[in-house]
Write a structure and sequence with these properties.
Layout: E1 11-16, E2 20-24, E3 27-33, E4 39-40, E5 53-58, E6 67-71, E7 73-79, E8 99-105, H1 109-129, E9 137-143, E10 148-151, E11 154-158, H2 167-178, H3 195-212, H4 215-234, H5 253-273, H6 275-289, H7 296-307, H8 312-318, H9 348-355
Parallel strand pairs: 8-9, 9-11
Antiparallel strand pairs: 1-5, 2-6, 3-4, 3-5, 7-8, 10-11
The structure holds zinc ion (ZN).
Length: 372
């Protein structure tokens, strides 16, 4: 994730040897064989068998474009809006559906079918929960990399994890597909504010498990993440806030951004606001900011606007200080130190009463508990 960029429209002509198959961000509009005047219509760009072939791609609004090409790739396709089924030759998805293509090394086709199911399930679930993926194609490609990496319209998954029954392969696939919503469509500076895409993308893993399986499966996963964070804290590693640059975390990067971050979305927002309100806010955030570059204030504002709740205090505590946090000037000096730090469970009215100030806005009390 070395760079991030504004959204643009891409047109790419990519010429490859006769045995190469090409996977690229966007959609193939035609393939041109060397020496032939005719343009050949394919849904994908298969090897020509003889002579050079130029694959001509265009994209909708995307913030980057990736090409993976090489000999020895197989490809299978399924439609996200349909019952899971691998398409046979010549079949295509409906125009308003999303075709998910999995490119794999030749002898890995059993695993490719699993990955195709994880990816189509992910697209279907995130479409419903977050908002529509606007393109008609998504590619998932087996390559050499560490775990997986996201690009607009295409994700790569590490071949070293490409084994049947590998739970990490499934979670990685769901994670990288979720990045289409968080990073590709709703963009952010991944080096200076990694929490903005990685934490909600890691939270999306919970959403995937809950909907692809059930509450129990998701609950076990969340519990194990919660325990992992406790173990991290028990080793006296710092409980850093979420909105820091990658360089500030050192060895805490994984625990804060990928574990504390998704737990923040789950425990502090989803559980406190209620699931319906939470997803209203997520959908508002997606709708408002797709194709844009967000800052931390955009998350806060979407959640406050969608729910009518005052969330500055909990964001200040977990995310940290950032421009747009609603805190009155000089507010801190007015706090009455004899009461100590403001507990997170305190209502805004209670904070005002105790501290004589409106600036520290506590999160709302859980339902049924008396307010001050
Ligand atoms: Zn990620």
């Amino acid at each position: 994730d070395a760079v991030y960029s504004e959204t643009g429209l891409y047109e790419v002509l990519f010429t490859v040897p006769e045995d190469f198959r090409v996977a690229m961000s966007g959609t193939l509009i035609n393939a041109i064989n060397e020496g032939e005047g005719d343009r050949v219509k394919y849904d994908l760009c298969p090897p020509s068998g003889e002579g050079l072939r130029t694959c001509h791609y265009v994209s909708g609004p995307m913030r980057d474009s990736l090409v993976v090409a090489g000999p020895g790739f197989g490809v299978i396709t399924a439609c996200a809006g349909d019952e899971y089924r691998v398409l046979s030759d010549g079949e295509a998805c409906d125009e308003d559906d999303v075709a998910v293509n999995v490119y794999f090394w030749r002898d890995d086709d059993d695993v490719a079918r699993d990955v195709l199911r994880f990816a189509t399930d992910s697209v279907r679930i995130f479409n419903e929960k977050f908002g529509p993926y606007p393109f008609n194609e998504l590619d998932v490609v087996e390559t050499f990399n560490f775990t997986g990496i996201e690009y607009p319209g295409i994700v790569v998954i590490a071949e070293r994890n490409w084994q049947r029954g590998n739970a990490f392969l499934e979670i990685t696939t769901a994670h990288e597909v979720a990045h289409q919503w968080w990073y590709s469509l709703v963009g952010n500076d991944q080096v200076l504010q990694p929490w903005l895409d990685e934490s909600i993308t890691s939270y999306s893993e919970y959403v995937y498990l809950r909907n692809a399986y059930d509450e129990r499966r998701a609950g076990e996963y969340i519990d194990s993440e919660d325990q992992a964070y406790r173990r991290y804290r028990n080793q006296n590693f710092p409980d850093l806030v979420l909105d820091l640059p990658v360089s500030a975390y050192d060895r805490s990067y994984g625990a804060i951004i990928y574990t504390k971050g998704p737990l923040f979305y789950y425990q502090e927002l989803e559980q406190t606001l209620g699931r319906d309100e939470f997803f209203d806010a997520v959908q508002l955030y997606f709708q408002r900011h797709r194709y844009e570059v967000v800052r931390s204030r955009d998350v806060l504002e979407a959640f406050e606007d969608a729910t009518g709740q005052d969330l500055d205090y909990i964001f200040a505590q977990k995310v940290g200080e950032f421009p747009g946090l609603d805190r009155a000037e000089g507010c801190r000096g007015e706090l009455r130190p004899e009461f100590g730090p403001i507990p997170t469970t305190m209502s805004r009215r209670a904070v005002r009463w105790l501290y004589g100030t409106a600036c520290g806005s506590g999160r709302m009390m859980p339902q049924g508990q008396p307010e001050f």
